[in-house]
Amino acid sequence: MASPGLKTVVMLSLLTTLTACGKKEAPAEYLPRVFVQVVKPADYAAAVTLTGDVQARVQTELSFRVGGKIIQRMVDVGDRVSARQVLAKLDPKDLQTNVDSAQAQVVAEQARVKQTAAAFVRQQKLLPKGYTSQSEFDSAQAALRSSQSALSAAQAQLANAKDQLSYTSLIADAPGIITERQAEVGQVVQATAPIFKLARDGERDAVFNVYESLLSERPADRSIVVSLLDNPNIKTTGTVREITPAVSAQSGTVQVKVTLDSLPQGMQLGSVVSASAKGSGKSAVELPWSALTKNISDPAVWIVDDKGEAQLHNVTVGRYLTGNVIISEGLSGGEKVIVAGGQLLHPGIKVEVAENTYKDLQPGAQP
Asked: What's CA 364's distance to the chain center, in Å?
């Protein structure tokens, strides 16, 4: 018969065996699997494509120097004109009447000068002989001088009337091309009212309207390649000549003028052209769209810290590209940014970093 001590030992052994058989291993902790990209800042220069047109360096608005009714127009938009060519005419009747009146006044003053000159000559002959007085001689001399002055004034008025009559013809002051017409035959126009716009021959500019935000940093290289919008193979180079200091109240844009080095065949006045330019390089970080999330209302990214935990980090987006974003502020370099697998994360959660890269997730790639 077994002793009580031996029974106790046997029972403890059986209990230990049963306990060991009923014990299960605790499940391993689940860690979200994410893909990361190590931040590497680089100089990024934003490329901007602009659309504009070819314009003349010098454009002149042509107008009559006198008012009147247009009776003839010799040119139209697109016509090439030469210097001193007559472009349009006003009805000259009223101004011709002024010329005729001034001419008659000159003839009358000439007759008066002739009469006073004869009277003065008589007084000049009679005075030494004592047949006339000094006062009569002086009066004759004053009358002659007065008539001569009146004749000079009448001649000046006649010259002015002839000038006014000549202004009824609108004349091109330089060779070029008519780009605008703002009046028609039969229309009564005031002096200095624009009738035509003349694009003078000479240098040509490509003119672009650019939003002010794109010019916050002026490009270091002012040389630009300009190509024809309809046929990009037709291209030339140009240099930024002028950037207007004022913003247009209507469009909110700034006008940029690029002087073209040459005008190739097919690119002419009024042609629609395009140009691509890059701003000065600035340190930034380029990330795929999938890396971007938000912290309440601010843009942010998930970062894996040294403990292997995900942390939400606010950033500033400098520019949105196709498939990528440019982060201008918030990342200094070396951070591990989660670019895939960050949909169900919360701050402080431990994550598993995948060994393969984000490119492996792209369509057609093998996992």
From this structure: 44
Tell me how far CA of residue 14 lies from CA of 11, 19, 257, in angstroms: 5, 9, 97
Distances (CA, A) of 124 to 76, 115, 121, 210, 272: 66, 14, 5, 82, 81
Q: Are 234 and 250 in contact (CB under 8 A)?
A: no
Q: How many CB atoms lie within 10 A of CB 21?
A: 7
Please write the tens of the pLDDT for every residue from 291-343: 888 888 888 888 888 888 888 888 888 777 777 887 877 777 788 888 887 77
- Prediction pTM value: 0.58
**Nearest of 56, 47, 51 to residue 232 by alpha carbon:** 51
Beta carbons of 319 and 361 less than 8 angstroms apart: no
Cα separation, 11 vs 4, whole angstroms: 11
Number of other residues whose CB lies within 10 A of the CB of residue 161: 20
pLDDT in tens, 217-243: 555 556 788 999 888 899 998 888 888
- Side chain identity, residue 41: P
